[in-house]
Amino acid sequence: MGGHDAGRVAGRAPKAAVTNIVRSAAIPRGVATALPKSIDPMNVLIINTHLTYAGWSEGKLNLAFMEQAKAFFAERGHQVAETFVERGYDAGEEVAKHAQADLVILQMPVNWFGAPWIYKKYVDEVFNDGLANKVLFTGDGRTRSDPTRQYGTGGNMQGKKFMVSATWNAPRESFDNPNGVLYGGKGTADVFLNITSNYKFCGYEILPDFGVFDIFKKTEEIPEALAAYSHHLEKYCL
Question: What pTM, to 2 d.p., does this model score?
Answer without folding.
Answer: 0.85
